[in-house]
Write a structure and sequence with these properties.
Layout (H helix, E strand, L loop, with lengths): L1 H18 L5 E6 L9 H16 L3 E6 L6 H12 L4 E4 L5 H10 L4 E5 L8 E6 L2 H14 L4 E6 L4 H17 L4 E6 L6 H13 L4 E5 L4 H9 L2 E4 L12 E7 L2 H13 L6 E4 L6 E3 L7 H15 L10 E2 L5 E3 L7 H4 L17
Parallel strand pairs: 1-2, 1-3, 3-4, 4-5, 5-11, 6-7, 6-8, 8-9, 9-10
Antiparallel strand pairs: 10-12, 13-14
């Protein structure tokens, strides 16, 4: 299988090299899942398609999907750079170190890494404040639950996922002091079977509000089958579970991708760290459905407060679940705090794996 996978990578970049003759800007994408996951990778690929639509024949794009972390990622990124790519976007946390290594070898190529925290002269990092939408989900869950048991299907215990679990719980707790949360880790971004099984176990334990940080609509589909509610992940997954989806986070990567490719075309590209906000319309939410009018109105109020900068979910005092004060009274978490969050907030009766 490894030989087949590597051959696929090499064939892809060979095609890229041949097909990109001329002065077109060559744009490559490395994906952690399949473009048909209807979640994270699907939305990144929508961004790639929008780059093509925006620039027309000024650009050529290519992608390699379902690239594993580690040596496979390093080989794929290096092969793409060798093929003549002008800019490469690697779209998952686990690609950070491989991309940083390859970036040193190709100083004239622009590298972009999603959700990481390391940069170099020719490698930028970028992400979206998706926790903002997740907090609104938590508020809805806290108001809608009848069992006071909400739950979460997690992929990997990295800061991005931990902070969304925390903000989901904090949102629910803000409107329902009796709420409890259960978490199952599936150790995969995309595995519909494992995701669905995890959701079913959580529902069996009393959960009636299913959230997820995995990429298939499987948990939401299980929620519908079991007669409970849930939230779409990364894209509007309403069509997969129209009776269960309350709303969904929608990742809008297109503005960032278009802007950074424009920078390559203009010669103005520069490194840095981008963290997109709801007020830029890059963190979006699907329509509020399957909920009473009062819940919808309150959820909209919280969403509006986040958008206009008057409401911050991570505002102290916040303690972790060992009793340690993490944010002082009135203190708002800065990006460094958010991007290194490896603790559960007070009230979550669990331990962060590996800690």
């Amino acid at each position: 299988m490894k030989v087949i996978k590597l051959l696929a990578v090499l064939l892809s970049v060979m095609f890229f090299s041949v097909a990109h003759a001329g002065d077109k800007v060559k744009v490559g994408f490395i994906y952690v899942g399949p473009t048909g996951d209807h979640g994270w990778t699907y939305r990144h690929d929508i961004g790639r398609q929008d780059v093509e639509k925006h620039f027309g024949d000024k650009v050529e794009t290519t992608f390699i999907e379902s690239v594993k972390y580690g040596p496979d990622a390093e080989r794929a990124i290096r092969a793409m750079a060798k093929s003549g790519a002008d800019i490469i976007f690697a779209t998952s946390f686990g690609y950070m170190e491989p991309m940083l290594k390859v970036a040193k070898e190709f100083p004239n190529v622009k590298f972009e890494h999603a959700t990481g925290y390391k940069q170099s002269d020719n490698m930028a990092s970028y992400g979206l404040r998706l926790y903002q939408a997740r907090h609104v989900q938590g508020v809805i869950a806290g108001m809608m639950t009848k069992t006071n048991k909400i739950c979460y299907v997690g992929a990997f215990p990295i800061p991005e996922v931990i902070r969304e679990i925390n903000t989901y719980y904090l949102g629910a707790k803000s409107v329902n002091p009796d709420v409890d949360i259960d978490i199952i880790w599936v150790n995969s971004w995309y595995n519909p079977v494992k995701e669905g099984e995890a959701a079913k176990v959580l529902i069996t334990q009393g959960c009636d509000m299913v959230a997820q940080h995995t990429d298939s609509p499987s948990p939401l589909q299980v929620a519908q089958k079991e007669g409970v509610f849930g939230f779409g992940q990364a894209s509007n997954q309403y069509k997969f579970a129209p009776k269960a989806q309350l709303t969904a986070t929608i990742d809008n990567w297109s503005p960032y991708y278009i802007a950074k490719v424009q920078g390559v075309i203009d010669g103005t590209w520069k490194t840095g760290d981008y963290f997109g906000h709801m007020n830029e319309d890059v963190v979006q939410m699907a329509p509020f459905t399957n909920m009473p009018a009062d819940v919808k109105a309150f959820a909209q109020k919280i969403k509006d407060g986040i958008t206009n900068g008057k409401y911050f979910a991570f505002t102290g005092p916040i303690k972790d679940n060992t009793g340690k004060l993490q944010l002082k009274d009135g203190e708002i978490a800065d990006d460094a705090h958010l991007n290194s969050m490896m603790y559960y907030v007070e009230g979550i009766d669990a331990k962060v794996p590996g800690n």
